[in-house]
Specification:
Layout lengths: L10 E2 L4 H16 L9 H21 L7 E2 H16 L2
Parallel strand pairs: 1-2
Helix pairs in contact: 1-2
Length: about 90
């Protein structure tokens, strides 16, 4: 379920709000043990996603590093190469 959570720090361009929200959604899905909450839990689930999104955005905004920013295209190519080696596609 959480394989879709990717590192979002130190990228150029910086992580977009939709990327942060998608990672927060995956995190909340993982810890709640459900992909879609019951009707009774929808409000709590949505609130948790919003809170994790806000906390993640604050974290990413406050991180400091001396390393140069990573290029998204280069990192995506590396991930595709690893997947090809792992799955043989």
């Amino acid at each position: 379920m959480c394989r879709n959570i990717r590192p979002l720090a130190n990228f150029e361009p910086p992580a977009a709000s939709d990327e942060i929200q998608a990672a927060a959604l995956q995190y909340v899905r993982k810890i709640s043990g459900t992909v879609k909450p019951s009707q009774a839990n929808t409000e709590a689930f949505d609130r948790a996603v919003a809170e994790v999104t806000a906390a993640s955005a604050r974290l990413l905004g406050s991180l400091v590093t001396s390393a140069p920013p990573k290029d998204r295209e280069v990192e995506a190519a590396k991930a595709r190469a690893r997947a090809a080696a792992r799955y043989g596609t």
